[in-house]
Amino acid sequence: MNLTDTNTAVRVDGLTKKFGSFTAIDDVSFTIERNKIYGLLGRNGAGKTTLMQLLTGQQFATRGTLEVFGASPVENARVLQQICFIKESQKYPDSFRIEHVLASAPWFFANWDADFAQRLAVDFRLPLTRAIKKLSRGQLSAVGVIVGLASRAPLTYFDEPYLGLDAVARQIFYDRLLEDYVEHPRTVVLSTHLIDEVSNLLEHVLVIDDGRILMDQDAEALRGSASNVVGKKTDVDFFVAGRDIISRDGLGGLASVTVAGLSEAERAGARAAGLELSPVSLQQLIVARTTSTSAG
Amino acid sequence: MGPLIDNGKPIFLQISEQIENDIIDGAIEEETSVPSTNEFAAFHRINPATAGKGVNRLVENGILYKRRGIGMFVATGARQRLVGARTEQFRASFVGPLLDEAAKLGITPEQVADMITDASITDREASAS
Q1: pTM of the complete model
Q2: Chain A residues within an 8 Å CB radius of B50
Q3: What share of chain B is helix, strand, coil (3-state, %, to 5)?
C-alpha cells in the first residue's frame, strides 16, 4: 500500500497484452483517479475493449502490473465486487426477462438502487416483462445502461454502451449519468466513438491508438489546445513553420492547418496576418491525432 | 443564464463569464445566491468538476463567497468591480483596434468620436420608431 492509494482507482504500469504475435496492448502506463468521469477514446481495434477486459480481470496480462483499488483484479472478489462492466453485447440466461435482470442485479452489486432502476426503465420505456431475447438492439443496450447506472459500483466501465440507442435515449443516459454521479460520486470510464456527444461530461481523457496511450490529459486542458488556421497557403505556411502541426489540408491556393498550443498573443498575430482561426473540437483533435497510418 | 457557445474557449471560463454577465446586468443581485455547481453542471450538461472550476475562479477573485452549508453568494461591490475590469477590457480589445484602424484610414480620433455620436443617435431613432 502506498499513500496515494486512497485517490487512485486504477494503476497500470508497463501493461502488455499479446495474442500470439499480435500486440493488442503495448507497454501502457497510466492511473485512473477515484470519483472522476474518464473517457477512453480511440479507433476500432485500438485496444479499448482489451484494456477494459484486463482492468476487469477477464484477460491475463502478458507483462506489466495492474492494480485496481490496490490489488490485482484477477479472481479477486474484493476488487471485482466493486466493479461494474457494461459491455456492448452482454449475455443473459435465455429464459430471462428484463425484470429478472433487475431482480438479480443486487446479488452482484452492493450499492444497487432498485427504485432508480425502475425509474430508468420508465425513462427508457422498457417493457419489464418482455424476454431479453425478444428485445431490440436499442432496448438491450438500455438494459445495460440501467444496470450500469443503478449498480452505483465504485468503478463502472461502459464499453460502447449505446449500440442501437436513439439520440433521445442517449441523451437520457448522459443526463441520468451526470445527475446520479453528482449525488453519488464514483469512478466512471466511458468508452465511446461519439466523442462530441460526451466530451462535456468528461473530466479526463485517455486516448488509445495502436495499443498505446496517445493522450492522457485533463479534458478542459485539451479543449482549445488546438486551433485551425485557414488562409492563403503562403501566409499559413509562414505562420505554422516550426509549430506542432496536427493535420494539414489544402484547396488551390488556400491551406487549412491544425496546430497545437497557440497563446492569446499568437492568435492575435495570426488574425493580424489575415488568417482565420477556428476552434478544434475534442473529436476533431482526436481524429486528427489518430488518423496517421504509420505509427510513430 | 444562456447556452454555452463552444467557441474553443474552456468551458469553465464560459461558466464564470456567464455568472459575471448575470451579475453585471443585474440578473443576479449582490448578496443573493448563485446556482450550485451541481445545478450548473446539470443545466449545461457538463462535468461538475468543470462547473466547479468556473465557480471557484470567481471565489478566488472575491466576486463570489461561500456561506458554509448554504451556498455561493455574490459579494457586495462585485458588480462595480466587474464593470471596472470589463471597462478596461473594452478599452483594450475594442477602442484600441478601432483607433488603429481609423489611423490607417486617416480618420482622426475626433472624427471617430463624431461617428460614434452619429451612430448612437441613429440607433436610438431606429429603436424608438
Answers
A1: 0.84
A2: 200, 203, 219-220
A3: 65, 5, 30
